[in-house]
Amino acid sequence: MEQARMRAAEARPCVPAARVPVRAPLAPAGPPPSPAPSAAPAPAPSAASTATPSPAQGVGGRRPAPGVPGAGPGGGSASPAPGPVPRTVRRHSVRGQVLEALRSALAGGQLEPGRVYSAPALGARFGVSATPVREAMQQLASEGAVDVVPNRGFRVCVRSAAELAELAEVRALIEVPVVLRLARTVPAGRWEHLRPLAEATAAAAAAGDRAAYAEADLAFHRALLSLAGNRRLLALAEELHRSSRWPPPAPGAAAPDRAALAADAAEHTALLEALIAQDLDVVRSLVRGHISGSDA
């Protein structure tokens, strides 16, 4: 018995020693091994270490541990994790492409005034589903280019001469005083920035591309009025511009030919020259005449 107690007493000092290798692997807090403890504080992570997370920080789909740089709240995340964002961008891109294609078809006369078009039929024509077509058509309806026909689709609006005259009058009431104010206040050198836009309208007119001319004409007027620095005015003027430009104004009416488009484009260049010279009388006359005849 005495010998057994002596053996047990000799074995007791070995118990604490056995716990040391068990605690040692738990000391490091992250993937890289920590240096020996010291009194100096740990250096702050650099911009390069936080800008691009490593695979251990969650890029591969794993949720990183809190406190790791780039891990989100409390960790200094700098870039969003991959997810549904590219899919959303693609969806908006399809809608935007369909919208521009429909605008070109309207401006070019491929969509006939007074005719009803369904979203599924147009989607098959463009090789897309009906959803982006329907969304694009709703935008065109807000611009006054089409009307919604319940359970059927969208009817392309018909513009009578009286309606076009009303739109031109409202546009003149807004644009003429704004352009006259700009003619008095904008330095002559700034008007030269609009010359490439005027040249783009001339190129589209020379090619006889009515759809391209419509977009180039809108871009010129948008750039001109943007110098006023009034976003609400710019949005209203663009809405009126789009509402008044869909040709032809009525079934059977003649669409503008190359000569008419070229004459309209030449007014852009003439207007720039008058603005540079600060000739207010010529500016007033050109803006009024351009608005009343630009949508013929």
Structural summary, described in words:
With 296 residues, this protein is mainly alpha-helical. Helices cover 59% and strands 3% of the residues. The protein contains 12 helices and 3 strands. The protein has helices at residues 2-11, 14-23, 47-51, 85-108, 119-126, 130-142, 161-185, 195-207, 210-226, 231-245, 258-277, 280-293; strands at 116-117, 146-149, 153-156. α4 (85-108) packs across α6 and α7 (161-185) packs antiparallel against α10 (231-245). The protein is elongated and about 55 Å long. The termini are far apart.
**Number of DSSP strands?**
3
Structural class: mainly alpha
User: What's the main sheet like?
Assistant: 3 strands, antiparallel
Number of helices: 12
Query: What is the arithmetic mean of pLDDT?
Result: 74
Q: Tell me the radius of gyration.
A: 35 Å
Helix content: 55-70%
Beta strand % = under 5%
How far apart are the termini? 120 Å
Overall 3D shape: elongated
